[in-house]
Design goal:
five-stranded parallel sheet, globular, alpha/beta, 5 strands
Length: about 180
Protein backbone atom coordinates (compact mmCIF):
# COMPACT_ATOMS: atom_id res chain seq x y z
CA UNK A 1 0.00 0.00 0.00
CA UNK A 2 3.01 2.29 -0.01
CA UNK A 3 3.39 2.41 -3.82
CA UNK A 4 1.09 5.21 -5.00
CA UNK A 5 1.54 4.27 -8.66
CA UNK A 6 0.41 0.73 -7.86
CA UNK A 7 -2.67 2.13 -6.10
CA UNK A 8 -3.50 4.19 -9.21
CA UNK A 9 -3.17 0.95 -11.21
CA UNK A 10 -5.51 -0.79 -8.78
CA UNK A 11 -7.99 2.06 -9.11
CA UNK A 12 -7.82 1.84 -12.90
CA UNK A 13 -8.52 -1.91 -12.83
CA UNK A 14 -11.02 -2.12 -9.95
CA UNK A 15 -12.77 1.24 -9.52
CA UNK A 16 -15.61 0.53 -11.96
CA UNK A 17 -16.18 -2.96 -10.52
CA UNK A 18 -16.26 -1.69 -6.94
CA UNK A 19 -18.51 1.25 -7.83
CA UNK A 20 -20.82 -1.05 -9.78
CA UNK A 21 -21.15 -3.49 -6.87
CA UNK A 22 -21.96 -0.67 -4.47
CA UNK A 23 -24.37 0.98 -6.90
CA UNK A 24 -26.22 -2.32 -7.40
CA UNK A 25 -26.52 -2.76 -3.62
CA UNK A 26 -27.77 0.82 -3.23
CA UNK A 27 -30.29 0.70 -6.08
CA UNK A 28 -31.37 -2.59 -7.63
CA UNK A 29 -30.94 -4.54 -4.36
CA UNK A 30 -32.06 -1.72 -2.04
CA UNK A 31 -34.79 -2.25 0.48
CA UNK A 32 -37.58 0.34 0.65
CA UNK A 33 -36.04 1.74 3.86
CA UNK A 34 -32.66 2.20 2.12
CA UNK A 35 -34.36 4.01 -0.77
CA UNK A 36 -35.96 6.35 1.79
CA UNK A 37 -32.59 7.02 3.42
CA UNK A 38 -30.97 7.75 0.04
CA UNK A 39 -33.60 10.45 -0.53
CA UNK A 40 -32.66 12.36 2.67
CA UNK A 41 -31.81 16.01 2.17
CA UNK A 42 -28.39 15.57 3.82
CA UNK A 43 -27.21 12.00 3.36
CA UNK A 44 -24.05 11.12 5.32
CA UNK A 45 -22.06 8.12 4.07
CA UNK A 46 -18.76 6.63 5.23
CA UNK A 47 -16.72 3.93 3.52
CA UNK A 48 -14.47 1.92 5.82
CA UNK A 49 -11.65 0.35 3.89
CA UNK A 50 -12.88 2.65 1.16
CA UNK A 51 -9.53 2.90 -0.63
CA UNK A 52 -10.19 4.68 -3.92
CA UNK A 53 -13.66 5.99 -2.87
CA UNK A 54 -15.51 3.97 -5.52
CA UNK A 55 -18.31 3.17 -3.07
CA UNK A 56 -18.75 6.85 -2.22
CA UNK A 57 -18.89 7.67 -5.93
CA UNK A 58 -21.68 5.07 -6.27
CA UNK A 59 -23.50 6.40 -3.22
CA UNK A 60 -23.53 9.94 -4.63
CA UNK A 61 -25.00 8.71 -7.93
CA UNK A 62 -27.60 6.58 -6.10
CA UNK A 63 -28.42 9.49 -3.79
CA UNK A 64 -28.86 11.87 -6.71
CA UNK A 65 -31.14 9.39 -8.50
CA UNK A 66 -33.20 9.04 -5.31
CA UNK A 67 -33.54 12.82 -4.99
CA UNK A 68 -31.37 13.10 -1.89
CA UNK A 69 -29.11 15.97 -0.98
CA UNK A 70 -25.43 16.47 -0.24
CA UNK A 71 -24.22 15.55 3.21
CA UNK A 72 -20.91 14.35 4.59
CA UNK A 73 -18.77 11.79 2.75
CA UNK A 74 -15.79 10.16 4.40
CA UNK A 75 -13.28 7.41 3.66
CA UNK A 76 -11.78 5.66 6.67
CA UNK A 77 -8.59 3.77 5.80
CA UNK A 78 -5.58 2.38 7.65
CA UNK A 79 -3.05 3.82 5.17
CA UNK A 80 -2.66 7.39 3.95
CA UNK A 81 -1.58 6.56 0.41
CA UNK A 82 -5.13 6.35 -0.96
CA UNK A 83 -5.69 10.02 -0.15
CA UNK A 84 -4.59 11.50 -3.54
CA UNK A 85 -6.99 9.16 -5.35
CA UNK A 86 -9.82 10.00 -2.96
CA UNK A 87 -9.19 13.70 -3.54
CA UNK A 88 -9.37 13.13 -7.31
CA UNK A 89 -12.76 11.44 -6.88
CA UNK A 90 -13.83 14.35 -4.67
CA UNK A 91 -12.99 16.74 -7.50
CA UNK A 92 -14.82 14.57 -10.01
CA UNK A 93 -18.07 14.57 -8.01
CA UNK A 94 -17.57 18.19 -6.90
CA UNK A 95 -18.16 17.28 -3.25
CA UNK A 96 -15.70 17.15 -0.39
CA UNK A 97 -14.64 13.71 0.84
CA UNK A 98 -12.96 13.60 4.24
CA UNK A 99 -10.14 11.12 4.72
CA UNK A 100 -9.56 9.64 8.16
CA UNK A 101 -7.57 6.82 9.69
CA UNK A 102 -9.09 3.63 11.11
CA UNK A 103 -8.31 -0.05 11.53
CA UNK A 104 -11.35 -2.30 11.10
CA UNK A 105 -9.57 -5.17 12.81
CA UNK A 106 -9.50 -3.26 16.10
CA UNK A 107 -12.19 -2.21 18.57
CA UNK A 108 -13.71 1.26 18.42
CA UNK A 109 -11.91 2.20 21.64
CA UNK A 110 -8.48 1.42 20.12
CA UNK A 111 -6.28 4.46 19.43
CA UNK A 112 -6.19 3.48 15.74
CA UNK A 113 -9.91 4.32 15.59
CA UNK A 114 -9.79 7.68 17.36
CA UNK A 115 -11.17 9.44 14.25
CA UNK A 116 -14.22 7.16 14.26
CA UNK A 117 -14.83 7.77 17.96
CA UNK A 118 -14.74 11.51 17.49
CA UNK A 119 -16.71 11.97 14.29
CA UNK A 120 -18.90 15.03 14.61
CA UNK A 121 -21.48 13.95 12.05
CA UNK A 122 -23.35 10.71 12.46
CA UNK A 123 -23.55 8.63 9.35
CA UNK A 124 -26.72 7.24 7.75
CA UNK A 125 -24.91 4.52 5.82
CA UNK A 126 -21.64 2.74 6.54
CA UNK A 127 -20.05 0.75 3.73
CA UNK A 128 -17.39 -1.80 4.64
CA UNK A 129 -15.54 -1.98 1.34
CA UNK A 130 -13.70 -5.19 0.54
CA UNK A 131 -12.12 -5.15 3.97
CA UNK A 132 -13.74 -7.41 6.55
CA UNK A 133 -12.83 -10.71 4.92
CA UNK A 134 -9.39 -9.41 4.01
CA UNK A 135 -8.74 -8.60 7.67
CA UNK A 136 -10.20 -11.87 8.95
CA UNK A 137 -8.36 -13.89 11.52
CA UNK A 138 -8.78 -17.19 9.71
CA UNK A 139 -11.49 -19.80 9.85
CA UNK A 140 -13.75 -17.55 7.79
CA UNK A 141 -14.22 -15.16 10.73
CA UNK A 142 -14.36 -11.48 9.93
CA UNK A 143 -13.51 -8.81 12.53
CA UNK A 144 -17.04 -7.68 13.32
CA UNK A 145 -16.40 -6.03 16.69
CA UNK A 146 -15.96 -2.56 15.19
CA UNK A 147 -19.08 -2.92 13.03
CA UNK A 148 -21.15 -3.96 16.08
CA UNK A 149 -19.80 -1.11 18.20
CA UNK A 150 -20.53 1.49 15.52
CA UNK A 151 -24.04 0.12 15.10
CA UNK A 152 -24.63 0.21 18.85
CA UNK A 153 -23.38 3.74 19.45
CA UNK A 154 -25.05 5.55 16.58
CA UNK A 155 -28.47 7.13 16.75
CA UNK A 156 -28.65 7.98 13.03
CA UNK A 157 -27.07 4.94 11.38
CA UNK A 158 -29.73 2.95 9.58
CA UNK A 159 -27.87 0.78 7.07
CA UNK A 160 -24.56 -1.05 6.89
CA UNK A 161 -23.43 -2.50 3.58
CA UNK A 162 -20.72 -5.14 3.68
CA UNK A 163 -19.21 -5.59 0.25
CA UNK A 164 -16.40 -7.91 -0.67
CA UNK A 165 -14.74 -9.10 -3.83
CA UNK A 166 -17.04 -12.13 -3.98
CA UNK A 167 -14.27 -14.69 -3.73
CA UNK A 168 -15.58 -18.19 -3.24
CA UNK A 169 -12.28 -19.10 -1.60
CA UNK A 170 -10.39 -17.10 0.97
CA UNK A 171 -7.06 -17.46 2.72
CA UNK A 172 -5.89 -21.03 2.87
CA UNK A 173 -8.23 -21.92 -0.05
CA UNK A 174 -11.09 -22.81 2.28
CA UNK A 175 -14.51 -22.73 0.71
CA UNK A 176 -16.91 -19.99 1.76
CA UNK A 177 -20.20 -18.77 0.28
CA UNK A 178 -20.12 -15.79 -2.03
CA UNK A 179 -20.82 -12.50 -0.31
CA UNK A 180 -21.67 -9.03 -1.52
Amino acid sequence: FEDVEALWGYAKEKFALRASMAFNALTAQATPSLRTVLARSNLNVAALGGGPAAELFASVVARDLAGGGQGKLCVYEWVDTWQPIVQSVSGLIAEPIDYQHCDVSKALSNDANAALMSFEVEFDILIFSHVLLECGRGGGAAPLELLRELWGQSTRLSHVLVLDAGQARGRGCRTRPLAG
